[in-house]
UniProtKB/TrEMBL annotation:
Protein name as annotated: Cytochrome b5 heme-binding domain-containing protein
Gene Ontology MF, one: oxidoreductase activity, acting on paired donors, with oxidation of a pair of donors resulting in the reduction of molecular oxygen to two molecules of water
Cellular component terms per the entry's GO annotation: membrane
Keyword annotations: Heme, Iron, Lipid metabolism, Membrane, Metal-binding, Oxidoreductase, Transmembrane, Transmembrane helix
CDD domains: Delta6-FADS-like
Lineage of source species: Eukaryota, Viridiplantae, Streptophyta, Embryophyta, Tracheophyta
Amino acid sequence: MAIAEAAKKKCISTEELQKHNKPDDLWIAIQGKVYDVTQWAKIHPGGELPLLNLAGQDVTDAFVAYHPGSAWKFLDRFFVAHLQDYQISEVSKDYRKLVADFSRMGLFDKKGHGVFVSLTVMFLFFSVAIYGILASDDFWVHMLSGGLMGFIWIQSGWVGHDSGHYNVMVNSSFNRFAQILTGNCMTGISIGWWKRNHNAHHIACNSLDFDPDLQHMPMFAVSSKFFTSLTSYFYERKMNFDPVARFLVSYQHLTFYPVMCFARINLFAQSILLLLSNKKVPNRGQEILGIIVYWIWYPILICYLPNWFERLLFVLASFAITGIQHLQFCLNHFSASVYVGKPRGNDWFQKQTMGTLDIACSPWMDWFHGGLQFQVEHHLFPRLPRCHLRNISPIVRELCKKHNLPYTSVSFWEANVMTYKTLKAAALQARDFTKPVPKNLVWEAVNTHG
């Protein structure tokens, strides 16, 4: 009791808090109270990375974004001190008020029927695709079935994405079932891998060395800052800008769309590598079993096609269609503002709005984009069901305007143009021979003139 009373009276400075930023000494502050979460980080449902990336900082905005009101009652057990120089910016005040308003309105709990509709459509299309393969000998029916499979993967990806942010089902057990079904079993992509990757992306949105969604070296580089061979703190490796990287990046604006057609291969590999690694993966057995299910049904289905030519085209068709989803993930961030370094807890709202852009579309297209056309809103309120994102967008726009922050909303075409220009600008900078890298014979052969 005496120790607890002493802790309540103890005060530390922000400078002192910043010293506790290591895995074995991890403190955070929330609304002026300091918490030692060193041990909790190891079992944190959102993974260890979000806490490590924000260690030694005030994380109030990120906390209210990711946690329901019921989570506050669990904090007292970790309390160690008060933050004596705690301050809050005007934009954070408005943001937290907005979260509280949405919570009082019950928006975080009203999920609508989008997931039920999505699952129903997926089941119907899956049945049509299987019927097209088994009951028809027509080449074009088979190709249409392949395209339908890609479309099913897109919708499955949206459900998996949403289920990772909030319960899309009536309880957590059914939600977990939906995750494994739509992720591992249906698409062959580990939901555990996705959550680990996606949580890091949200916390460190558009940080070149902390956000895994921008770390595509040696294939792509959205900024010339990658040319200094940054270290990826997510993948725990150096992203070398070597001769091979220079060659590939120099033509990235031309290879971008073809690569997007086969982006799933990378996701397959990343999922398997994580599940076979020594990193902590909750319910690893479920994850592996779900992946095995995918690699049983999909190859068997392909084998029912009459020849290897059609089997290859079927795979290409399904991969190319679902490549639209991978493209959209890139459009939302590639041409937005980027930075180098750890994310900071005291500019949460600013970093989310600067690092994302919305894709304007008609309401009838919301089902196709899975809600992520409202990327700014989703990043600010990741627990908010997608059915509310369109309704809150005018509120977010006004708040950005009030605080002189960017709110970018462009058409799908304009987003593609912006992304292409970003990639081309970096590609041209990669060809700058005043910044040499070790010689590469392929590069010199292709780029020798005169």
